Amino acid sequence: MGTGARTLTVLAIMAVLVGSAVGFSPELTSSASATSPQPLYYLAMGDSLAAGVGASTTSNRYVNVLYQHELSRFPSLQLDNIGCSGATTTSVIHGPGCSYASGTQLGDAEAFLRAHPGQVAFVTIDIGANDVDGCLSGQTVNATCVQNGMASITSDLPSILSGLEEAYPDLAIYGMNYYDPFLGEWLTGPGGQNLARQSESLVVGLNALLAQLYTSGGAATADPATLFQTADFALTGTYLGAIEPQNVANVCNWTLFCSSSQNIHANDIGHALVATAFEQV
User: Fold this and answer.
1) Rounded distance, CA 153 to CA 102, Å?
2) Per-residue buried b or exposed e for 167-177, using 16+ beta carbons within 10 Å of the residue's own CB
3) Element (H, E) at 32
4) Hey, which residues does 237 pair with through a beta bridge?
5) Is the dihedral of CA 142, 144, 148, 154 positive or negative?
6) What is the DSSP letter of 144?
7) What is the dihedral of CA 191, 195, 198, 202, to 10 degrees?
């Protein structure tokens, strides 16, 4: 075959190949789109801590701190936070509460889970504190109130967990226990110190119950209480230059209780510690 003929043949083959590529380009584009990763979701539930109360900015809320950390493992992760200030275990199931399409926090959570099968990386939930924190009145703890609150948690939290599991089998759920903001009462004198010790006993009991219920429901339990050294009354802490029990100093330094009219919510440091507790599990 002459040089001219070979050149024409090569050009003809190239033209066929180019024409074929052009002809198939829509399918190639479609195939690329089909393999694009679906978004994954982090669903956050709970009370005012989940809602971010106490944090100075949205990015400093524990939910958002945790979300940013988990992006390194799940680059397509998206956050849906349905936490509600004032939520109790009962209101999560039955309301009232924040504005939810279904009427309840659990209803919206279940609807979200059902709408995103195979796309939810994990759920976090902090709930139960509001069931009992109203039991501290003046400088006493109302034992009947505590009993009623614990009974509500015992009844309601398993229902919450089973509802989530039913909506999304094998869901990764992470609950948490609580620090004790009322340790800050220690600074008010002998009566406050007595209340601080009573509140610590209350929180130890609450956290034991939460851990038991989360474990029974197949969920892990994050442990902010240990990071806050909630049970440590050793005189090794410092707050405003004064020596205080370690747990008292931590609560005063990491929440708004001692600096802002007994506000029980974590400040930015406290929110970061709660996020760390979740990261550890």
Assistant:
1) 22
2) bbeebebbbbb
3) helix 3-34
4) 244
5) positive
6) H
7) 170
Residue 45 to residue 39: CA distance in whole angstroms: 19
Q: How would you write the pLDDT of the chain (281 residues) with one tens digit per residue?
A: 444 443 333 333 333 333 333 333 333 333 333 445 689 999 999 999 999 999 999 999 999 999 999 999 999 999 999 999 999 999 999 999 999 999 999 999 999 999 999 999 999 999 999 999 999 877 889 999 999 999 999 999 999 999 999 999 999 999 999 999 999 999 999 999 999 999 999 999 999 999 999 999 999 999 999 999 999 999 999 999 999 999 999 999 999 999 988 899 999 999 999 999 999 99
Specify whether the CB–CB gap between 146 and 135 falls below 8 A: yes
Q: Contact, 183 vs 196, CB < 8 A?
A: yes
pTM recorded for the entire structure: 0.85
Residue owning tokens 């390194």: 72
- Amino acid identity, position 107: G
The region, left, alpha or beta by phi > 0 then psi within -120 to 50, assigned to residue 240 is left
Which is nearest to 247 in space by CA: 176, 182, 183, 162? 183
Q: What 3-state DSSP class applies to 242? A: strand
- Provide the residue type at 189 as one letter: G
Give the max Cα distance, the chain.
109
**DSSP secondary structure letter of residue 235:** S
